[in-house]
């Protein structure tokens, strides 16, 4: 637990610096481009695309400055939206950018307190900095378990892929084995699991439907 607290402090520091330097932009959340940020959203949103016009709730865990809310509204989703982020600076930026919108709220924290129809995350598992890879794997498992506990209909998450080109891989990033996480999700959470690894980025998405 002590280790986890330090892990969260490091992570919080990393993203605070990003948003305080670059604001409500892709760089402010450590991404390389808005286009790639949206391609990731395209994958995660497959989790609930069948909902169409129906009312449902989504938690965007690690929401950054809340750009996924804009994406969802552009796509016509009227779902209720909760953005949660460990960084106070991110939540302040999200509130400045998208605060006061209908059926949307931003919450600072890491602990899910409510249950949602769906939970998604984009990018929280990528930057491990100096944390050992096996400690990071346990941390991921704990968080994904909470996604399972707090989602009624399903959840989706993405990670950098171990199938990245060796010359571009960095020591401070965590590259996950997509086959391991597919198997893990199948065995622990649901028979209905999709592994998406065909969208041209160095990451993959796991979708778990209950
Ligand atoms: C790479 S950014 C992506 C932000 C957003 N999902 C997007 O695509 O624009 C990751 C975000 O997750 C937050 N984060 C990282 N670990 C977290 C955790 N354990 N709980 C909640 N938020 C976390 C960071 O503060 C950061 O804002």
Fill in the keyword field for this structure:
6 helices; about 210 residues; eight-stranded mixed beta sheet; alpha/beta; Rossmann fold; about 40% helix; single chain; binds S-adenosylmethionine
Mean pLDDT: 96
- SSE run: HHEHEHEEHEEHEE
CATH architecture: 3-Layer(aba) Sandwich
Strand content: 15-25%
Question: What small-molecule ligands were found?
Answer: S-adenosylmethionine
Tell how many strands the DSSP assignment holds. Answer: 8
**How much helix, percentage-wise, in residues?**
25-40%
By CATH reckoning, the class would read Alpha Beta
Largest sheet: 8 strands, mixed
Distance between the termini: 30 Å
Descriptive overview:
The protein is an alpha/beta fold and 210 residues long. The chain has a single domain (2-209), classed as Vaccinia Virus protein VP39 (Rossmann fold), CATH 3.40.50. It contains 6 helices and 8 strands. Strands 1, 2, 3, 4, 5, 6, 7 and 8 form an 8-stranded mixed sheet that branches. Helix 1 (2-22) packs across helix 4 (88-98). The chain is globular and about 45 Å long. The two termini are 30 Å apart. The protein binds S-adenosylmethionine. Residues 11, 15, 29-30, 37, 61-64, 67, 84-87, 90, 110, 122-124 line the site of S-adenosylmethionine.
């Amino acid at each position: 637990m002590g280790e986890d607290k330090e892990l969260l402090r490091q992570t919080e520091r990393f993203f605070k610096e990003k948003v305080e330097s670059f604001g409500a932009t892709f760089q402010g959340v450590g991404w390389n481009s808005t286009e790639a940020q949206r391609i990731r959203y395209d994958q995660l949103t497959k989790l609930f695309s069948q909902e169409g016009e129906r009312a449902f709730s989504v938690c965007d865990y690690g929401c950054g400055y809340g750009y996924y809310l804009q994406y969802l509204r552009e796509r016509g989703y009227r779902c209720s939206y909760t953005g949660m982020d460990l960084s106070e600076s991110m939540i302040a930026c999200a509130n400045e950018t998208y605060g006061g919108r209908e059926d949307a709220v931003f919450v600072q924290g890491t602990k899910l307190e409510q249950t949602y129809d769906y939970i998604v995350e984009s990018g929280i598992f990528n930057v491990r900095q100096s944390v050992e890879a096996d400690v990071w794997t346990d941390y991921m498992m704990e968080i994904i378990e909470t996604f399972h506990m707090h989602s009624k209909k399903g959840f989706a998450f993405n990670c950098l892929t171990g199938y990245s080109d060796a010359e571009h891989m960095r020591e401070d990033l965590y590259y996950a084995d997509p086959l391991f996480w597919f198997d893990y999700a199948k065995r622990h959470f649901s028979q209905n699991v999709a592994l998406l690894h065909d969208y041209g980025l160095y990451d993959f998405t796991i979708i778990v439907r209950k």
